[in-house]
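ok so for the tutorial part 2 we go from a plain amino acid sequence to predicted structure tokens. step 1 is just haveing the sequence, like this:
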Amino acid sequence: MEHAQPESRTLFQYEDGYSFTRESGEATEVPCFGYGASRRMGDAAIVKHGSSNVDWSAASLFNDEAPLSNVEEWLLQADYAAKSSKRVHLRARFDQIKATLIRLLPDVEGFRIVGLEESRPQPSVEADTPYGWVPIRRLSLGYKALMAWVVDLASRLFEHYPDSAEPLTEAAVVLVDEIDLHLHPAWQRGLVGFLSERFPKVQFIATAHSPLMVQAAATSNLAVLRRQGDRVLIENSPGAVYGWRVDQILTSPIFGLDSARPPHLDALLEERQAIMTKPGLSEADKRRVAELDRDMEQLPFGEDPEEIAARALIKQFAERLRVLEGL
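step 2 — the prediction. this is what the tokens look like for a chain of 327 residues:
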């Protein structure tokens, strides 16, 4: 008599609390994708690497010339497949990518496929921007670099999870080098939240040189890489910076800047400090301190333009009040 074998299940647990199980016989591999700093679009919708035509999804981490999926080509192929097939999920995936790009890219309200016309030798994809409809190949480098790796990631999730109703919500590990590269400060602040929302079960491991990225990811696991001789040391949990201003983060041990002020102002402050620490001040010293004080009085102090203007108004009122009291 044969005995039934116990059901085999494998549990995967992530730091954010998400977990999932796989039945015995099912694939348990969580895919890993990597994106280097160049993030160059290729000519094909899905790029294959190597003589064996095997898709190496982290090639651009180690080779600046390794291309990613071509966003325009992917959208064109996805649109054609959706229109020529009765399978509903193909249209859903095309719509998911469009919605992802619209949510990701500032000032882009939509995309359209431009068909064959006498003035257009081949179909193309255009983005709806404040300047009108612009071919995506003519968008700025920041737009194209961001689109390149996000669409590449989405297309690979579609490939890896062909039977999933929501491939963008499936698990993966994604490495991104210099994730802040070419991005406007406003993009940097919103990117972490966008990725967490759009790819909720993806573990992102990214490097950055921007305090804005640190500020946006202050509740994530932060680590600082420091060079020591011919080695690189990894300092985990370098210090809590939750709620800190960007200038405070810059002068924290994470970045280690001595000051967030302009270099010329630091020089003036150092000069004033050197004079004031003398045991006795000459008349020339006193005149120089007065000059430095006048120069620094013109500097703005405040969190924003409104506070700066308010401080200036208070200063003017105080000066006029002193004049009136002296009459």
